[in-house]
Amino acid sequence: MTSTLLLYIILGILTADFILEQFLDFLNRKKWSPILPKVLDGIYDQEKYQQSQNYQKDKLIPSLISSGIGFIATVLMISAGGFAWVDDLVRNYFEHPIAIALAFFGVVMFFSSLLGLPFSYYSTFVIEEKYGFNRTSLKTFILDKLKGALLSCFIGGGLLALLIWIYLQTTTNFWWMAWLVIAFFMIFMAMFYSSLLVPLFNKQTPLEEGELKEEISRFATKVNFKLDNVYVMDGSKRSSKGNAYFSGLGSKKRIVLFDTLIADLTKEEIVAVLAHEIGHYKKKHTLSGIFLSLLQTGLMFYIFSLIIANPLLSDALGAKQHGFHLGLIAFGILYSPISTFLSLGMNVLSRKNEYQADNYAAENYDAKVLGDALKKLSVSSLSNLTPHPIYVFFYYSHPSLLQRLKALQLIK
Q1: What angle do CA 245, 52, 270 make, to 5 degrees?
Q2: Which segments constitute the Peptidase M48 domain (predicted)?
Q3: Residue 255: strand pairing partners
Q4: Is domain 204-265 given the CATH code 3.40.50.11030 in the classification?
Q5: Catalytic residue selected from 128, 264, 269, 358
């Protein structure tokens, strides 16, 4: 294989991904209709439904422009030697492979962030503001970007440096040693993400004593679930949309409720949502998800180790010298078809897990109350309740609301 042929393969994969993305968006748009579908009677009224349609349309245009610019920029960076130019630039200042790689990705990520910043700002302060969702101040927006950048530098840069160091020490054992490092990091983050990283962005306070906590305690006792850590997060600091999530493993597990969720739902509806989250734990979905993610990561590193030393990867990007960082970019694109296939499988499994968690909440608490909670959350966030089935298959980790209500036997 020549570097020219490899370049065409890389550009072909990028183009195929972009076309598929646009086709799926087109299918999803075809499902939009100004007339309230009969299946949504009792969930949306005509006015609210029209508002949800407008919300989806307003989000679509900047999304199309952003993805189009991103695609063109990536193609130009590859075909016109942009990545090679950045590589030459950083090699003028650094000699060690780790320093070169960190500087290279620092430059690339900086300009990538600048490219995406206007769209992020528009989404937050124009679209989300228009529909009453945004509660983010400009100060919070800027601080979030800065904190995210610093975390990327320290965590992402630290992991990258460690992986390159391992590669330089031993290419033979690189893949499984790198896998062990990432596996440890993934498990560590699964256990401590909520207690270590979330506080950098949001406050989490223990749920106050009262009727809600008593109802939660009664349910937890009923299903024999030890629940010492229930926290309320100030999600209203950024958005009016409600949410809840389960994090951690073993004694470090905790359930986090957004304050917006508590404000929007009744006491019983909150417990139903909580029952769903506990269902994930009881069905061991968290553990199985981590296990499958670890297997995927191991597969990726194994394939990566087979080709990373090949100078064709850097040649295809127009670089004069081969580098780990250039090989990583080329590999990331070449691996994307495999990644897409694996993601489809994970989404299928995830949707199955959501049905099981819903069923657990229905059996152990109340199906109708859970359905009411799901309806409120979907309507209040103006969700698209009629997505195209193929779009759901490719992108949704959760079933659509109507699919979940049908599974709970709350609608026909």
Answers
A1: 30
A2: 206-409
A3: 230, 246
A4: no
A5: 358
Q: Is 358 a catalytic residue?
A: yes
The DSSP output letter for 263 is H
276 labeled part of a ligand binding site: yes
pLDDT in tens, 97-124: 999 999 999 999 999 999 999 999 999 9
258 φ/ψ angles, rounded to the nearest 5 degrees: -70, 145
Is 96 marked within a binding site? no
Residue 388 known to bind ligand: no
User: For the residues of 30-80, what is the DSSP string, one character each?
Assistant: HT--SSPPGGGBTTB-HHHHHHHHHHHHHHHHHHHHHHHHHHHHHHHHHHT
Identify the active-site residue in 47, 277, 315, 372.
277
Secondary structure tally for the chain: helices H, strands E: 17, 4
Half-sphere exposure (Cβ direction) of 305: Cα atoms closer than 13 Å? 20
Tokens representing 161?
């440096």
Domain ranges of the chain: 3-201+283-407, 204-265
Tens-digit pLDDT profile for residues 44-89: 788 888 898 899 999 999 999 999 999 999 999 999 999 999 999 9
CA distance 235 to 31: 31
- Residues ≥6 apart with Cβ < 8 Å to 310: 327
